[in-house]
Amino acid sequence: MKGVLVKDLYIAGSNILVTVISLVVLGFGLSFLLETSALLVLAPVASTTAAFISITSDAASKWNQNVITMPVSRSQIIGEKFIFYILLAVFGIIAALLPCIVLAFFDADITCHSLCLYGSVGISTTLLAGGISLPCAYLFDPEKSQIVFMMSFMASTGIIAGLVLLANLFFPVKEHILAAFAMVLAVSAVWFLISYQVAVKIYQKRDIT
User: Fold this and answer.
1) Dist. CA 145–CA 135, nearest whole Å
2) In whole angstroms, what is the distance from residue 169 CA to residue 125 CA?
3) H helix count then E strand count, the chain
4) Helix 74-104 to helix 112-139 angle, to the nearest 10 degrees?
5) pLDDT tens per residue across span 89-141
6) What pTM was estimated for this model as a whole?
């Protein structure tokens, strides 16, 4: 599985570099208009597009027919894509933190509270969207999968809003906003793990030949 992961990282290397540079530049640009910490919402979402592209390109290049002949199980193949997705999200978060750290030295309005808040929103959105789009990438053809991928981020924002409203029934979210989004993050992580199991079952039943 390590070799397959290295393959995806190598192919996505140039895209990752461009994404990281773009996020850093955007972060400094946002500092003149908005709170720079808000970049943490966009960063993991933007960086994980390479994972979806790798799945569709594997299907187009018939890579799936080759990888199943290697000494890796189908669950490991799917696991690699999910790990790849997480790594890309981490790269995005790190890229977004760079301008935040630099600007913090110049007394910019950046606090640990805002970093935790926006970071949890960004990661939660990414995990929820990935939990929708990654299994569907193995269930549908590339064209339909692309539509699902774009809609998954809109769906994830709706899910987050619903979870926040649900939490507000039990405690005032405005007064405990970090606790509310910590709950959202936990639900998102569980959702992502469940989606991995779903994707494995879909891929195991899929005819690759």
Assistant:
1) 9
2) 22
3) 9, 0
4) 150
5) 888 888 778 777 777 776 556 777 788 888 888 899 999 999 998 888 888 77
6) 0.83
